[in-house]
Amino acid sequence: MSDRNKALFGLFAAMTLLLGGGCLPSPEPQVTQIEQPASPPPITPTASKTVTSDNGFAFTYPAVYTISNNSSAADESYLLIHEDDVRPEGFVGEGGPPIQVAFWKNRKDLSLTDWAEQNKNESGFYAGTPAYEQISVAGKDAIRFEAEGLYPIKYILIEHENGVLLLAAAYSDTAHPNLETFETMLKTVTFEQ
Questions:
Q1: Residues pairing with 190 in the sheet
Q2: What are phi and psi of 45, to 5 degrees?
Q3: Are 56 and 191 in contact (CB under 8 A)?
Q4: Is 12 strand, coil or helix?
Q5: How far apart, in Å, do the first and last CA atoms of the chain sit?
Q6: What is the pLDDT of residues 1-35, one digit of tens each?
Q7: Coil, strand, or helix at residue 64?
């Protein structure tokens, strides 16, 4: 056999083995499992901020929100606006839908629903007593309901010490980030014991 034929034969034999047609058994293929990381919650420690109140509650919100003290009549109030909804300085008109966190002292020691009824503008009950659901948030009695304003709004009123903590999320449509953020923020609310 010529050197050229030997080289071609060797190349042919090597290709045959590589392609699985040779006499040697082919090794079992290695299967690597790729673990998909669990998706992080919308609020992560590195991408969030926490507010701790002098009124004995705290909550965490995503850093993609701008927070300001709201000038409402509440004893303490915060307004959170998603970065996509922040209006430029000098903007005239309605701002984007906010999330509000506010605390009022319950000076008359009313039940949660009585307080909401007697403080309609603050509580969101301004359209009459809405259908509400009794729930618990961080071990505290609370009520959940929805109302319509400039935007649809989801409300939670939580009984705390001698006051009422309100969390309200307005949203422009069902895909608005306020809805998911609102539900996640509820899980971060804590109270001093």
A1: 58
A2: -55, -35
A3: yes
A4: helix
A5: 93
A6: 555 444 434 433 433 333 344 444 444 434 333 34
A7: coil
